């Protein structure tokens, strides 16, 4: 190559105003200024300057998001399947490492699947109350079982202090057979937690706020109490309405 790679090459100078040929013309009033020609300098260590339709303030828009819903609010597993299909079609919006099977993260957010969670919890001898009377969360945990037990104990204390009821924990079954080596190095243990609604949460909105407070208090106190590997613990979600499944995955690995 006879010039450095430029991540955002400007358009051809004769196309910047929608004209052809090399005859200079005066831009019409209100038109964008012509894009300056490539100056041969790279952009390492600094953001590119605005040029043409590109603006570095839009860099945060690189992720892909899709939404699938039934117009009449009918629930079905097909909606989840369609959502994952939509996610797979956004695979080009994600990044991967040198390993083709290690991604920078993908997942889905779904409405709380009450029937499924009731069945799965029952297999762990946990009886869930009616829909809306409990919340569920997905916790990423350290491989250190002692640290995990301490984190769970702290969570129980905070739940009780906030007037709610800890119903139990469930280890989430996972399959990492298609995940790359780099992703496996940081793979956490995953747990579902179930929190029953207390008397001081008379409606769903109040209960949802309580769950948010519980989550934030737990996050802030993990390091304060000196729990080992506190930085590896994280709640992907904790809600009485929605549930998140995600990981260091490619979009095509979520299914």
Could you name the key traits of this structure?
single chain, 255 residues, alpha+beta, Glutamine Phosphoribosylpyrophosphate, subunit 1, domain 1, 2 domains, two-stranded antiparallel sheet, 6 strands, 25% helix
Distance between the termini: 41 Å
CATH architecture of the largest domain: 4-Layer Sandwich
Helix-strand sequence: HEHEHEHEHEE
Q: What share of residues are in beta strands?
A: 15-25%
Protein structure class: alpha+beta
For the biggest sheet, the summary is:
4 strands, antiparallel
What helical percentage do the residues reach? 25-40%
Domains counted in the coordinates: how many? 2
Strand order of the largest sheet: 3-4-2-5
List unreliable stretches of 5+ residues: 1-23, 38-45
Radius of gyration: 25 Å
What do the pLDDT scores average to? 83
Number of helices: 5
Query: What is the CATH C-level name of the largest domain?
Result: Alpha Beta
Count all strands and give the number. Answer: 6
As an assembly, this protein is: single chain
Shape label: globular
CATH topology of the largest domain, by name, is Glutamine Phosphoribosylpyrophosphate, subunit 1, domain 1
The CATH fourth-level homologous superfamily of the largest domain: Aminohydrolase, N-terminal nucleophile (Ntn) domain
